[in-house]
Amino acid sequence: MSTATQELVIKANGLVKRFDDQTVVNEFDIQIPKGAIYGFLGPNGSGKTTTIRMLCGLLTPDAGSGSCLGYDILSQSERIKEHVGYMTQKFSLYEDLTIRENLDFMGRMYKIPGRRTKVSEALETLGLAHRSSQLAGELSGGWKQRLALAACLLHEPDLLLLDEPTAGVDPKTRRDFWDEIRRLSDKGVTVLVSTHYMDEAIQCDNIAYIAYGEKLIDGPAMDIPQMVGLATWRVEGSDLADLSMKLTGKPGVEQVARFGSALHVSGTDSEKLTAAVAPFVDDKCHQWTRQPAGLEEVFIHLMNSSTDNFGRQKAA
């Protein structure tokens, strides 16, 4: 279903944010439907978090307009904040309080009716009940993550902002976390995720690639490679470093990237790319397979073609 036929919870046009003489976000437009998990993907310092905070009314743009949850992001930011749950990258709760005490404090701050019942329900929902008397400072990264999520969900927000939410946690904890986020999305909660991790990006319904203040592309995650038009060959075998050197710079070869035990050779002109790799395809040292480009190849391609805020060419 296209955004034209969905209920939009966020609409923004021409958002600009400057700090001193540096433009951190430049002419940003976006539409985000209700219940979407929308990923903002880009390198550190690219403006992802700044963009999301403007969309949610947490930061005032220097130019542009928009609405979030039916409220104007310029004049009604306080109303927006009442409906937003914000999980920061750095754990920001009180480490000298227990899990339950932290949640109870958050309940008091939001003036939640039936606070104690809500806290107990949150403890059960996120599997924290048996640890409720444990000090937050004694928790591992994964358990701190659960507590942080419980805290920002306590007031039942319509919009959830996650800033690098699974940095430093193990794969199972990451999967459990995303299972919970998906359940929230199914209930109609809209989720905005700032990340530069590919395994987080692939969990998102939609992705916006941002580099150095500019939105490069946005759309459904499954459509992004086709929108960019990137063709890819996967190569396995011996002496991949030598092969990479031979392929780099050939007409049609726009990037050669190592993915584990394989090379991914990509370009936007499929015919030129095929011609460039043709002399190597029949050698007996390597196995060549044509495959659809993935989000990571697209990410590398877009980063290689972008420039940073000071005009210097950047590589991923």
Concise overview:
With 316 residues, the protein is an alpha/beta fold.
Describe this structure in words.
- Helices cover 33% and strands 28% of the residues.
- It contains 11 helices and 14 strands.
- It has helices at residues 48-55, 77-81, 99-109, 115-125, 141-153, 171-186, 198-201, 224-228, 240-247, 270-281, 295-304; strands at residues 8-19, 22-33, 37-41, 63-68, 71-72, 84-87, 159-163, 190-195, 206-211, 214-220, 231-237, 255-259, 262-267, 286-292.
- The strands form 3 sheets. A 6-stranded mixed beta sheet has the order 6-7-8-3-9-10, sandwiched between helices. A 4-stranded antiparallel beta sheet has the order 2-1-4-5.
- α3 (99-109) crosses α4 and α3 runs parallel beside α5.
- Residues 309-316 have low confidence and may be disordered.
